[in-house]
Design brief:
The protein has 396 residues and is an alpha/beta fold. It has one domain. The chain is 38% helix and 10% strand. A 5-stranded mixed beta sheet has the order 3-2-1-4-6, sandwiched between helices. Strands 5-7-8 form a 3-stranded mixed beta sheet, with no helix packed on it. The longest helix has 26 residues. The N terminus is likely disordered.
């Protein structure tokens, strides 16, 4: 079944890519919006200011290094998803952590106040929203974004929301890649973290959250699953994922990769954006873009499975839940189930662990083939029996 699914998925991907190439050739789309410039790599690569380059060089010359750096962004503009006050509250809770950070923003003075405690591990990159891109080799004009807003089938259709919000969402991988290439702290691991990731409160202020960067795989992007798989809904043929918020199994609030993986991931992410543009699917849900990128490219993504409790702890503790941030911070929240499905990545890096991964590009197993991928917190005894039977089969 898995082999048939995998072959079917590859055929579907090949057909879509051929169709995209054919449309490119026949329609000669606008070179500024819908064309991946394969022969002019890094055309949209960000040019850091001389001040930023000097700051990064000073950190490097002083030998200030951190094995992990978080990239994030904070932009102020009218008609965003939340109020200025709400976003400022999120930023206050997230930027008070002690991790090394590269922050893209159009209000650098305000952000500097929030990082006063960590000046020796912070690079603030002044940037206007119009400088945001979705990739090094693909540009989407403001006119294109406005058309996207009118054609989307999501809840954002026709909403009075500034298009810069969606540029930020789709530009996360691009910004993180720029930060990784600047690499002011000589870090091996780079993260994208939404500035609202700690919106539940200043619970980690003064703490280094990424205490276990070693959990990031050597050659693939680390992501996590916010929900179980649904056999009726999730399948490898769903290469282009509709822009329905909350339907994806990959959240976009935090993902991480080693510095050399980010450029490769960005290139594949750009190909996904080109597919969405040419097939008429909205770019508004960055989580759908991430999921499609992972489904299309074998070996590119490693998703932390939700059944990681199996086999790693005492059986009596396997289903002990942490119901709030205090419990999750004290316990291994990644193992026992964090109270938020979208903001759980912090517990992975806080606690560390011996994780089991799943690569969606290898095919989607059925429930019979991998019961725990669909029901990680249900019927533990049945799950253990299934895993035991599979182990016997492998040995035989």
């Amino acid at each position: 079944m898995m082999n048939r699914n995998k072959l079917s998925r590859k055929r579907s991907i090949a057909i879509i890519l051929l169709a995209v190439i054919g449309i490119f050739a026949l329609c000669t789309p606008d070179l500024n919006t819908r064309y991946l410039k394969a022969n002019t790599r890094d055309a949209m690569k960000f040019e850091f200011s001389e001040e930023t380059l000097k700051q990064a060089a000073d950190f490097q010359q002083q030998g200030i290094t951190f094995n992990s750096t978080i990239a994030t962004a904070f932009f102020e503009f009218e008609n965003s998803h939340h109020s200025h006050e709400r976003y400022w509250g999120m930023a206050t809770c997230s930027l008070c952590i002690n991790d090394a950070m590269v922050i893209f923003t159009n209000v650098p003075e305000k952000i500097a106040q929030l990082r006063e405690h960590a000046k020796d591990r912070t690079v603030i990159v002044p940037m206007e929203p119009e400088d945001l891109q979705v990739g090094n080799d693909i540009h989407i004009s403001d006119e294109e974004w406005k058309r996207e807003q009118e054609t989307t089938t999501s809840a954002y259709k026709g909403a009075n929301i500034n298009i810069n919000l969606f540029k930020i969402w789709a530009g996360k991988s691009w910004m993180a890649t720029q930060a990784a290439e600047l690499n002011p702290f000589g870090s091996d691991v780079y993260h994208w973290m939404d500035v609202g990731h700690f919106r539940d409160g200043p619970n980690y202020c003064g703490e280094t959250v990424v205490r276990h960067p070693e959990i990031v795989p050597q050659d693939s992007m680390l992501m996590f699953m916010r929900r179980d798989l649904y056999e009726q809904f999730d399948h490898p043929e769903s290469v282009v994922v509709e822009d329905d918020f909350g339907s994806t199994f990959i959240p976009g609030g935090w993902f991480a990769g080693r510095a050399h993986v980010w450029p490769k991931f960005l290139q594949r992410f750009e190909e996904t954006i080109a597919m969405y543009l040419m097939t008429g699917v909205s770019l508004f849900e960055d989580q759908a873009l991430l999921e499609t990128t992972c489904i299309r490219n074998e070996g590119l993504c490693s998703l932390v499975r939700r059944d990681n409790h199996m086999g790693y702890v005492d059986p009596s503790e396997q289903f002990e839940k942490c119901n709030n941030w205090v419990e999750c911070k004290e316990k291994a929240g990644w193992r026992q189930g964090s109270p938020s499905n979208f903001f759980g990545m912090r517990y992975y890096f806080w606690h560390g662990g011996n994780f089991r991964f799943w690569d969606p590009a290898t095919g989607f197993p059925t429930e019979d083939q991998d019961f725990a991928l669909y029901h990680p917190f249900q019927d533990a005894e049945a799950t253990k029996r299934l895993l035991a039977r599979r182990l016997v089969k492998v040995k035989n």
